[in-house]
Amino acid sequence: MGFELPTRPGPRPETTECAPHEQVSQNSTPEVHALFKRRAFELPFVERRPSGISVPGAEALVLPAPHACGPREAFMVGREFAHVHPAHDGSSHLMLPLPAVEELIAKGWGEPHPMARLGHIPATAVMAFAPRDAAEVDVMLRLLTTSFEFARGKLANPAPIHLHD
Q1: Nearest to 85, CA basis, from 139, 11, 27, 124
Q2: For the whole model, what pTM was predicted?
Q3: Long-range contacts for 141-146 (Cβ within 8 Å, ≥24 apart)?
Q4: Which parts of this chain are annotated as the region Disordered (predicted)?
Q5: Count of CB atoms within 10 A of residue 139's CB?
Q6: Biggest distance spanned by C-alpha atoms of the chain
Q7: Distance between CA atoms of 19 and 85, rounded to whole angstroms?
Q8: Whose CB has fewer CB within 10 Å in the chain, the N or C terminal residue?
Q9: Is the dihedral of CA 150, 65, 41, 130 positive or negative?
Q10: Are the beta carbons of 101 and 87 closer than 8 angstroms?
């Protein structure tokens, strides 16, 4: 896949161990969070909706049916492939191909979703930590774009599989 991230500087943020899975330290400033959300929802075809699976206030990135051609493990629920948590948290949950999951964890940008660790949901489900500055917003957008391409069927699954709500 040729996906490589820089190493995230500093210690890992603190997160909760169960639902709701939240980041509780090293959160984004309101300005950085707003920048990330603005840029995240600029991806083509993406519909901005309340998350179908996350906490109140989380905003989902959803693909219209004609563009949701990825494998089942590229989606959380329906055609939602990622969501951004509210500003007090700032992290995101997204679905990534397994090589990108390994890179995300190895370089300190995120962690497996607790339900994925338990085997209840696909191992493709991860938390990406909240960006702390504009440079980290760029890294988060690379992760989000990888999730977007996975959901579109452009990574690891070239055969179209249409999912319907």
Answers
A1: 27
A2: 0.91
A3: 141/36, 141/39, 141/40, 142/5, 143/5, 143/92, 143/94, 143/96, 143/100, 143/104, 143/109, 143/110, 144/40, 144/43, 144/61, 144/82, 144/92, 144/94, 145/43, 146/3, 146/96, 146/97, 146/100
A4: 1-30
A5: 18
A6: 41
A7: 13
A8: C
A9: negative
A10: no
Domains, the chain, in order of start with CATH, read: 30-151 (3.90.1150)
DSSP label at residue 43: S
Percent composition of the chain: helix, strand, coil (DSSP 3-state, to 5): 30, 15, 55
Amino acid at 47: E
Per-residue pLDDT of the chain (165 residues; tens, 9 = 90+): 567 899 999 999 999 998 899 999 999 999 999 999 999 999 999 999 999 999 999 999 999 999 999 999 999 999 999 999 999 999 999 999 999 999 999 999 999 999 999 999 999 999 999 999 999 999 999 999 999 999 999 986 433 433 333
| Residue 22 · residue 15 · CB < 8 Å | yes
- Residue 104 tokens read as 């995300």
